[in-house]
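Researcher: Please translate sequence to structure tokens.
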Amino acid sequence: MALIDLISKDVVKVPLESKTKTEIVRELLKVLKDAGKLENLEKAYDAIMARERLGSTGLEDGIAVPHAKTDVVDTLTLAIGISPGGVDFEAIDGKPSQLFFLMLAPPGQSGPHIEALSEIARLTKSKAFCRTLIEARSADEVVEIFRED
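Model: Translation complete:
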């Protein structure tokens, strides 16, 4: 499954309103719940935060990929959020995170989860791609940017 297959305007939030790591996770999970992709927000939140305790998923250069395996989803599920001003997500480079890719996968499915993480890593290596995403003003614009890549 290609990453673009997981992206639709109902799972994209621009801009994020949250100002803390835990609020960002909750806001993105609410996006998934509102899109009908998630029923048990609290269980998903607990899974993401348990994963965060193992080590922050705040990467370098403003990218964060909070993710977890949980039985609250039947298939790989993704939400994208953009915070142009950045939020402290305890990133490994100490810089604020601006692009958030929250992923949930069922416990028995490693392949699609790893492929999606790999595709996010590949796409976000491009500074121009990241800059374009950060400058996006709507969910429709974000979807279009992914379709063009």
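Researcher: Any highlights?
Model: Strands lie at 12-13, 63-64, 67-69, 77-87, 97-105.
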